Amino acid sequence: MSPIEIRVHGVGDHGPLSALGSVGLEPSAQTCKGIESYNLPKTPAHDLALINWSRTSRGMAGFLWYLAIPFTLLNVVGYMKPAGRRRNWYTAVTHLACVLATVVLTAWLIVITETVLEYAPGLAGEVLLAEVLSAWLPAAAVAVAILCRTFLRPERRIPPILACVHALFAFAVAAAVSVCKPARMEWSSWPNSFGYGGDAPSPALGTGADPRLDAMMVFVLCFTIVALILACALWNSAAAVVTMLVFLVLHSTGAILRLGAGWLMAYLDSIGAVADRCTGMAASSHLLRAADPEGDRVLLLDLVPFAAWAAIVGLAVAFALTAFTWGWKETVEWQEDRAYRRRRFVHRVVSALPGLIRRTLVWAVVVYAALTAVVCFVALRTSWSGWPLTVALLLTHATVVGVLVFIAMRGKLSAAPEVFGKIADVAGFWPVRYHPLAGSSYRDDVVDGLQCELERHREGRVVLFAHSQGSVLGTWLLANEKVPENLRDDAAVVVEGPSLLPPKENLNLLTCGSPLRSLYRGFFPSYFHDQFFLRASERTVKWFNAWRETDPIATAMPDAVSEQVHDEEIDEADRDRLRGHTDYWIEAAPTTWIQGRLAPPGGAIP
User: Fold this and answer.
1) In the list 235, 466, 557, 601, which could disulfide-bond 474, CB 3.0-4.6 Å?
2) Which one-letter DSSP state was computed for residue 513?
3) Which own/partner pairs from 226-229 qualify as long-range (CB within 8 Å, at least 24 positions apart)?
4) Helices 237-270 + 353-382 axis angle, to 10
5) What is the full DSSP assignment across 328-383?
6) Mind giving me the DSSP string for 181-204?
7) Which letter, b or e, does each residue of 483-517 get, where b requires 16 or more Cβ atoms within 10 Å of its Cβ?
8) How many CB atoms lie within 10 A of CB 248?
């Protein structure tokens, strides 16, 4: 069997020819007016196979990934467990956080449903029916979504027990809301949408009625605090930050969709469509959502997106302060051009990301203390009734408009599909084990397909040339081919048994632009430990790793395999056209190495 080079690309919506590099797209030297002509792609003399893989459909299934992103990130948090004795504690806390996310999702769906039912004709006098629809319909929707994707799609490999537990918690929220009816409790203290302290009862509740509890606002505050406690209990700075970001996004998204649903129903009511607020669910029948305040008051839920995104922006500011106060002057020579300095700086930041996130928490305290001081000053001076409230509502409403346009265009807005697609590609590496609504994983299918391709060439010499996320998939296959799934987080596992892959003396590995050390080893130490890299290196006769300092995620391999891996930094010879994370396929160093490994035995490079 003739020698072959097998190329595997990284994340993104790649075409079948992307692994040829940009050299295949260079225009010909002789051009004619009115047409475009290009040179034929340059391919090596030896056999070449291009492996193309994709996360999932880029149609409706791709759009659904936007909705699954928060739960997918929580699923990723579960795999960020530390190596050592705290793993069981970490796993338990992660499962609690995931259950909390299901509770939050169900609560927001109840509030959105109550908003819609206010315009459902015929519910004004049907209190019991309105209660059942507003509480149990959203819970049933969550439970059915979880159970269907678990039992009707067994290829997703979602643990049935996990799905049943989350479905039960969705129904538990509905039962608690139906029994306690928190929105009907009398309450005259903050947080309350009626006068911010109970001084202005709502006429919607009847003359002389006391202000009722702003139940969903209390829920948001209390469960945000619970989420913060769980995040701290993880004892992992990166996992804690991701967990808090997820809950901030969940609350802000829920509030935005509730406001958008209210706008839509009010519009349908105004044009005489199916909506009719006069005969819809009465405000006094709400179970979780407070009635709309009268006059110039606002529902506090409408300010949740502003508060949540202010917290996210505050964290981003804290991270920027950390990054720019950490070794900036030592990163580059100041005589270098600006683009090169910027890319090299990003490379150093990403390489040290786990440690930088830990340092960010110190700056976050400073930033949030300053923000709290500003908020308190504004609140004491204006009571949030003047320009501060106007600014907050304008920003919130602008966000709602943006989200509605984004939904109408099915996510095809500016660079959003590319950004979210890459996030989904990275997060989708991990199978669904912690939250049943997380996006499906592509890892096992792609790894099995790659194994099948390598098995076809096991009799000849092979170079597996893997770029970016492709290097993670290829290395995962080599390191874990014979390791049971339940033991892949065990650094001391012993590998035995036959292999379907080419024998060690025929199999070469070339990784480039690889995040194995910078991201995967840093954030997932229980899986990408020293033994993982040693097992991968022991399955290959040679391992070549190429990287650039202008590549944001690529680094040399860990010290544990420094003797087994040939690391080579690729110099950016053309400073006017920095390649960064791209075009490793056509660099001289890796292509020369491949030619040497696939040459006849007498002329092979040692």
Assistant:
1) 466
2) S
3) 226/100, 227/97, 227/100
4) 50
5) STTTS-TTS-HHHHHHHHHHHHHHTHHHHHHHHHHHHHHHHHHHHHHHHHHHHHHT
6) -GGGSB--SSS-TTTTTSSS--GG
7) beeeeebeeebeeeeebebbeeebbbbbbbbbbbb
8) 22
Question: Residues 6 or more apart from 243 whose CB is under 8 A from it?
Answer: 74, 77, 97, 227, 230, 231, 234
In one letter, which amino acid is 498?
Answer: P
Q: Which of 366-370, 380-384, 517-521 has the lowest mean pLDDT?
A: 380-384
- CA 403 – CA 258 distance, rounded (Å): 12
Tokens of 278: 């006069």
Cis ω for the linkage preceding 484 (within 30 of 0): no
Give the span between the Cα atoms of 196 and 175, in whole angstroms: 29
Task: List the strands of the sheet with 507-512, edge to edge.
Answer: 47-51, 4-8, 462-467, 507-512, 542-547, 565-569
As a whole number of angstroms, the distance between CA 426 and CA 158 comes to 19
> Burial of 93 by CB count in 10 Å (0-12 exposed, 13-18 middle, 19+ buried)?
buried
- DSSP letters, 515-566, are -IIIIIIHH-TTTSSHHHHHHHHHT-SEEEEEE-TTSSS--PPPGGGTTTEE
Grouping H, G, I as helix, E, B as strand and the rest as coil, residue 248 is: helix
Q: How far is CA 380 from CA 221, 298, 375, 443, in A?
A: 21, 18, 9, 53
Q: How many CB atoms lie within 10 A of CB 69?
A: 18
b/e burial code for range 399-421 (CB count within 10 A of at least 16 → b): bbeebbebeeeebeeeeebeebb
**56 confidence band (pLDDT: 50, 70, 90):** low
Write down the pLDDT at residue 195.
Answer: 44
DSSP string, 448-511: HHHHHHHHHTTTS-EEEEEETHHHHHHHHHHHHTTS-GGGTT-TTPPP-S--SSPPGGGEEEEE
Phi first, then psi, for residue 436 (nearest 5°) are: -70, -15
Contact at 8 Å (CB) between 201 and 208? yes
Structure tokens at 271: 């044009």
Q: What is the pLDDT of residue 338?
A: 78
Would you say the pTM of this structure is higher than 0.85?
Answer: yes
Tell me if 182 sits within 8 A of 287, measured CB to CB: yes
What's phi and psi for 30, nearest 5 deg? -95, 115
